[in-house]
């Protein structure tokens, strides 16, 4: 099976795919808000430190694991150590859950791209989002489908699975070669327009103004590591899977640096665009910038439509550019996420790619309908929080501990990375992964657990949080363990 393993057509193709998975839809609004809330310009110091001590070391580790053991996350883990296969399946289960609701957010962005032409959201975008479009009901209720979400969701899955059917080189790589450059160009146009608006300077000043007093706050450093961890798509199988398709002589370390810095550059670009636009909005309303700052879904689908309403010219055009950028960012990430469990199923059960896409992608598409109901926003909010905080972070912590301390694989991985890379790994890499990263991830987990025990997440009913938060995160782990024992590897044993 090794000789038939798909490969990227070029190094640029791999980098585009890796960057495309990292430059996700959430990065456009998450990074600016996190930076602003944690010291503005001062936040860039812990952010850079976290990138160098956790982000890049983790990327190198996962790139090396996939490249050395030549398999999806479960097969890579099994080849590294038979006792670690469950971890790979756990990571795939996390990716599967994320795909089910991520597709719905991409569908929202697609809808809003077309809403932009006539500014369909009207004078009260938040009321339109929650009422007319999503038709949000109380937490725990399904309330039937939000009809405006179903058609774009169908389109999103048709595009995603169509690309998946075409394979790694002709599908994923070809799609990223079109979508990622287009995303960067379109979003750059939006940013340029934003920074030329009245009030943009005040918005950028609010974003970059350093609050050095926060540098000594441990929560700011945890926020920096959290941002790096989530934005680079480590800990839930994407980078392991992608790097397994690299040619045997690929420069692992250099690819990791390029991917990390490309992602950070896009985050900075997003910060420019978001806060320039918020500065414009603040000036139009005659209020300070801090009164219009928001984050998450509300920022993207309520605040930005309000900003677009107030553009002096070509509102619909720039609205379309912004939301089509979100759509492209979302699609590149959704494709990456879906590839993880498609590859895992294909290798574990020795089935064709077509069958793997139909089963894995099809099941994910069907389950995504839950988030297309009128209660979908509530389900999405809770599931996203818990699968990230107690899925990705926890799985990442376990991965680092197993690789560095239990299986003691760092020396072996370092030797492999050095054998194909121009940049040689020094002691800093092992220290970061064996000491710095585990400590930071442990404190992130501890703080998240403390906060969620102190009060139910988001003020939701306890039963709702338990069912769609804690239980979903726990089921990802349980399913991961069970899949390890369902069937032995057939036809893909490799080094097992």
Description of the molecule:
- Helices cover 74% and strands 0% of the residues.
- It has 496 residues and is an all-alpha fold.
- The model has no long low-confidence stretch (mean pLDDT 94).
N- to C-terminal distance: 13 Å
Number of helices: 19
Main sheet summary: none
Outline = globular
How many beta-strand runs?
0
Q: Kindly name the structural category.
A: mainly alpha
Order of helices and strands: HHHHHHHHHHHHHHHHHHH
Strand content: under 5%
Q: Cα-atom Rg, whole angstroms? A: 22 Å
Which consecutive residue ranges, at least 5 long each, have pLDDT under 50? Answer: none
Helix content: over 70%
Calculate the mean pLDDT score and round it: 94
Secondary structure blueprint with pairings:
Layout: H1 11-22, H2 27-37, H3 44-69, H4 73-80, H5 85-118, H6 125-133, H7 147-165, H8 168-195, H9 200-208, H10 218-231, H11 238-243, H12 252-285, H13 296-309, H14 315-349, H15 353-367, H16 376-406, H17 410-420, H18 427-454, H19 462-486
Helix pairs in contact: 1-8, 1-12, 1-14, 2-10, 2-12, 3-4, 3-10, 3-12, 3-17, 3-18, 4-5, 5-7, 5-14, 5-15, 5-16, 5-19, 6-13, 7-8, 7-14, 7-15, 8-12, 8-14, 9-12, 13-14, 14-15, 16-18, 16-19
Short account of what is shown:
With 496 residues, the protein is an all-alpha fold. The protein has helices spanning 11-22, 27-37, 44-69, 73-80, 85-118, 125-133, 147-165, 168-195, 200-208, 218-231, 238-243, 252-285, 296-309, 315-349, 353-367, 376-406, 410-420, 427-454, 462-486.
Task: Provide the descriptors you would attach to this structure in a database record.
496 residues, globular, 19 helices, single chain, 74% helix, mainly alpha
